[in-house]
Amino acid sequence: MVFITGPLFSGKKEYAKALMHWNEQELETYAIWDVQKLAAGCQDLPALAQKLASYQVVIAVEVGGGVVPTDPTERAQREAAGRLACLLAQRADKVVRVFCGIPTVLKGEEPV
Questions:
Q1: CATH code for the structural domain at 2-103
Q2: d(Cα 65, Cα 63) in Å, to the nearest integer?
Q3: Domain spans of the chain?
Q4: pLDDT tens digits, 44-95
């Protein structure tokens, strides 16, 4: 599994399509994105991470940067999203952070 993360609108889906040589339909079939939303209220993050790892590509928006929310529920959701990202990175063969459309490989091999 390839785990791709980065800020909103940074080019994560475009990178996934280029990396895997996919068209839009293949992306919809073999990838899942915005998984950080699934972490909110999840009681078993390891099980969720294991289920998500069955996809070829998993994409998450980084939510940990910036101002910490004052609302306890929002803080808990942000914490859960970060923990899910860590679990996905552990399970991934390759981890890539995309920022301003530029991929940085954090784990695994650079594409040839």
A1: 3.40.50.300
A2: 6
A3: 2-103
A4: 999 999 999 999 999 999 998 888 889 999 999 999 999 999 999 999 999 9
Q: Give the Cα separation of 13 and 71 in Å (integer).
A: 30
The secondary structure of 7-67 as a DSSP string is STTSSHHHHHHHHHT--HHHHHHHEE--THHHHTT-S-HHHHHHHHTTSSEEEEE--SSSP
What does the block give as tokens for 19? 């990396």
pTM for the whole structure: 0.94
- Helix 72-91 to helix 45-52 angle (10° resolution) is 50
For 88, phi then psi, to 5°, come to -65, -40
